[in-house]
Amino acid sequence: MRSRFSRLAVAGATALALLAAAVPSAASAADKSAGTPKPTIVLVHGAWADSSSWNPVIERLRRDGYPVRALANPLQGLTSDTAYVASYLSTIDGPKVLVGHSYGGAVITNAATAVPDVKSLVYIAGFIPAKGETIGELAAKSTPPLPLISTQVPGGTEVSLDPAQFRSAFAGDLDETAATDLAITQRPANTKAVTDASVTEGFRTIPSWALLTRQDHAISPDLQRFMTSRAHARVTEVDASHAVMLSRPGAVTKIIEQAAR
């Protein structure tokens, strides 16, 4: 009997020792997982905006612990803008989530495959062109045409939105003062932005998410549905204008963080 109890005691002690050894390992694994750095969120604005249009989204992402970069998109043509963004991305170590609004969607589509560690693509009311397609061809499917003003500059022709119609075309769910400020500070885009053909399709190999804006008068919801369906993006629809990152920053942040996870 005593021998039996001795054997049980030894077995029990051995089991406890093994459990004790395993617990620190499990804890270490959990700590390692919890300590995994979050991907850098790279925000790329589109035409008639600038990087400050992301400010409400940046605030939320930073509060949630994400490193963020907001690029100043040159808006000088899809070919040159893609090269610029790809060069910038090459300076960022580790995983990256690329987020493009409007024309910025075309830029991230083309720049994504030029650098390593792009985890996902997020289109915010964005253009998603196929190879060989131009933004102009896609925009022609979005009616009515936008109220544009053309200006001749040394680098060609630049277009901007008519300030008098900026709110109705771009920012219908912002108050008049905010929309007027955006109209005044808008950055014009070179017409090469709509005439340069898309070269690569990042969405073919990189998981994609999209926020579709149902009150958009700049890129019609139907055109957005066509592009997001073709790209097999995970789509969330929201009642918002084209300026959704300002009118619904919470919804924009939510879909970015879904893609980041």
TrEMBL record:
UniProt xrefs under InterPro entries: AB_hydrolase_1 (IPR000073), AB_hydrolase_fold (IPR029058), Sec-Metab_Biosynth_Hydrolase (IPR052897)
Q: Which keywords belong to this entry?
A: Hydrolase, Signal
Tell me if Hydrolase is a UniProt keyword of this record: yes
Organism, scientific name: Kribbella lupini
Q: Where is the signal peptide?
A: 1-29
Give the Pfam families listed for this entry: Abhydrolase_6
Superkingdom, natural source: Bacteria
Q: What residues does the AB hydrolase-1 domain cover? A: 41-252
Write the protein's name: Alpha/beta hydrolase
A single MF term (Gene Ontology)? hydrolase activity
